[in-house]
UniProtKB/TrEMBL annotation:
It comes from Bhargavaea cecembensis. The keyword RNA-binding does not apply. This is HTH merR-type domain-containing protein. Keywords: DNA-binding, Repressor, Transcription, Transcription regulation. GO terms for molecular function: cobalamin binding; DNA binding; DNA-binding transcription factor activity; metal ion binding.
């Protein structure tokens, strides 16, 4: 029921379609609404609160993460806050977040392909894929997305990157780079990204993929004698299951000085902090790895 001074929360919930719990959460966490407390302790909301809640809902449907949608809805009411103009790449990321939230696989693939076609591979990776994956990870860590939303979004990106790699043909005699996850590591998207960047520099690439068997990396290196090996561990699972894994691979790398070894990801960084390797460069700076590789890139 509407009061002369405003609306009770149950009325706001009915008008907006939001639950009372969500309204309180948006109030407490993001400051979207600022109800007045009556003498009896009840919250009373004005028309401006309802407009702001509806605006946040609309922005969420367009693909904005909740925190950003709240910021935009609040800023829209402040004439002294300039509204930023969104770049083409930023618009793609926003669309991807919207489709990912609703698990629309076909729309995710369509937007990714359109962005790749318009921006070219380098800008597509740096301005769309990497920012999108970072937002997906953040939404999942904050509990705003479920595991299925995160999984669908990541798999669609992975499948497209695999397809792009298959359609790039470096020169047969170009230097070779092997990309692999550590054993027990199943997050292989970072490997796909860095191999694509290496391909743009003219390298041949070989993907070992997620969770190779113990000893598989060493075996492949001995067979193919690559110029560089790129290892990834986003989680600590490889090192919890195999505590001496990084040390073993470091000793192996020391026996193959003709090959440069790199390791990245949160898990690898944590493992290296416990025992710094001598022959494997551990870094999360993809740009630095690319600059290192670029010093010996094919002409």
């Amino acid at each position: 029921m509407k009061e002369t001074e405003g609306y009770y929360i149950k009325d706001v919930a009915r008008i907006t379609g939001l639950s009372e719990q969500v309204i309180r959460k948006w109030e407490d966490r993001y400051g979207v609404v600022r109800p007045v407390r009556k003498g009896n302790g009840y919250r009373v909301y004005g028309e401006e609160e309802i407009r702001r809640l509806l605006k946040v809902q609309a922005l969420r449907k367009e693909g904005h993460p909740l925190k950003r949608a709240a910021e935009l809805a609040i800023a829209e009411e402040r004439t002294d806050v300039p509204q930023e103009r969104e770049s083409g790449a930023g618009l793609y990321v926003r669309q991807l977040i919207g489709h990912g939230e609703q698990c629309k696989e076909a729309e995710l693939e369509r937007v990714l392909r359109q962005a790749h076609s318009e921006l070219g591979l380098a800008r597509f990776l740096d301005k769309v894929v990497i920012p999108f994956l970072k937002q997906v990870g953040g939404l999942w860590e904050q509990g705003e997305w479920g595991e299925y939303q995160e999984s669908v979004s990541s798999l669609i990106v992975r499948d497209l990157l695999v397809n792009i790699r298959r359609n790039v043909s470096p020169a047969p005699g170009a230097p070779l780079i092997i990309g692999a996850c550590f054993p027990e590591e199943r997050h292989e998207l970072p490997v796909h990204l860095i191999l694509l960047k290496a391909m743009m520099k003219g390298y041949r690439t070989h993907l070992v993929g997620a969770s190779p068997a113990p000893g598989a990396i060493e075996s492949i290196v001995q067979q193919l004698t690559p110029d560089a090996v790129l290892l990834s561990a986003s989680t600590t699972a490889p090192f919890l299951r195999h505590p001496d894994l990084l040390e073993q691979l470091d000793r192996f790398a020391g026996k193959h000085p003709e090959t440069r070894f790199y390791a990245g990801g949160t898990g690898a960084l944590l493992a290296a902090a416990a025992g710094k390797p001598h022959h494997i460069r551990v870094t999360d700076d993809i740009g630095q790895v690319m600059r290192d590789l670029g010093t010996n890139a094919p002409a």
